[in-house]
């Protein structure tokens, strides 16, 4: 769905940014443990701050401690803080520009990154916030921390309706929505019985075929020809 696609793309692009720009995001394990504790707080995405590396690239000698960490909000981690920390999303767009990403893919990346930014800023609810809102606003809920059966049932039905594209939930996804699922849109592809082992020649041909998709006109695996773009 749209949300999973956005976060999956974000993680993949951050990994490519780290490799392409030679960045370091290491922080002490004690800080990681502290971040994990803070992340379990209610509404942590907007109310908590997390330890993050102050300088992702090697700083000038005059800056001081190259491995310094400081507390940042999720929004600051994503969009930047001060003049010394550019933020992950601006770095992603710098990377996409560096590899000469095509306009159509770049526009889809903007949609994904804007969605994540709005989640971090509190403009859109997280999944946990949205589910709590559904429960606490249900007529049968008595605000006693006990979730009646009909409330749980209606919550599950609401989740399924959003996931299948039958309901547009602006509090959760903003202007984006999931394309309705239809059984007549499914591809009929009968699967072969996995009773035979793929022999070496066939395996090498398969690998060569798929490898060529990423080393064609776009260069040596730079991702400009990735066939992974799918409609929302």
Output the keywords:
mainly alpha; 2 domains; 49% helix; globular
Structural commentary:
Pathway: Sulfur metabolism; glutathione biosynthesis; glutathione from L-cysteine and L-glutamate: step 1/2. The protein is mainly alpha-helical and 232 residues long. It has 2 domains: 1-124, Glutamate cysteine ligase subdomain (DNA polymerase, domain 1, Orthogonal Bundle); 125-184, Helicase, Ruva Protein, domain 3 (Orthogonal Bundle), CATH 1.10.8.960. Helices cover 49% and strands 3% of the residues. The protein is built from 10 helices and 2 strands. It has helices spanning 2-21, 29-39, 44-47, 74-79, 88-98, 103-121, 127-136, 149-163, 170-173, 200-212; strands at 50-53, 69-72. A two-stranded antiparallel ribbon has the order 1-2. Helix 1 (2-21) packs across helix 6. The model is unreliable at 217-232 (pLDDT under 50).
Helices and strands, with pairings:
Layout: H1 2-21, H2 29-39, H3 44-47, E1 50-53, E2 69-72, H4 74-79, H5 88-98, H6 103-121, H7 127-136, H8 149-163, H9 170-173, H10 200-212
Antiparallel strand pairs: 1-2
Helix pairs in contact: 1-5, 1-6
């Amino acid at each position: 769905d749209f949300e999973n696609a956005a976060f999956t793309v974000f993680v993949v692009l951050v990994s490519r940014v780290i490799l392409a720009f030679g960045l370091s995001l290491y922080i002490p394990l004690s800080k990681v443990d502290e971040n994990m504790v803070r992340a379990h707080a209610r509404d942590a995405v907007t109310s908590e701050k997390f330890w993050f590396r102050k300088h992702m690239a090697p700083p000038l000698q005059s800056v001081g401690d190259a491995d310094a960490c400081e507390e940042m909000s999720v929004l600051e981690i994503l969009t930047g803080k001060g003049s010394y920390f550019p933020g992950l999303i601006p770095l992603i767009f710098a990377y996409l520009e560096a590899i000469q990403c095509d306009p159509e893919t770049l526009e889809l990346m903007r949609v994904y990154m804007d969605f994540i930014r709005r989640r971090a800023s509190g403009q859109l609810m997280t999944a946990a916030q949205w589910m709590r809102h559904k429960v606490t606003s249900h007529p049968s809920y008595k605000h006693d921390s006990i979730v009646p059966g009909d409330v749980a049932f209606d919550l599950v039905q609401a989740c399924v309706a959003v996931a299948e594209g039958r309901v547009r939930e602006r509090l959760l996804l903003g202007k984006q929505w999931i394309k309705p699922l239809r059984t007549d849109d499914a591809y009929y592809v009968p699967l072969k019985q996995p009773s035979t082992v793929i022999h070496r020649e066939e395996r090498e041909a398969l690998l060569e075929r798929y490898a060529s998709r990423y080393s064609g006109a776009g260069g040596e695996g730079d991702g400009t020809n990735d066939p992974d773009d799918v409609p929302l």
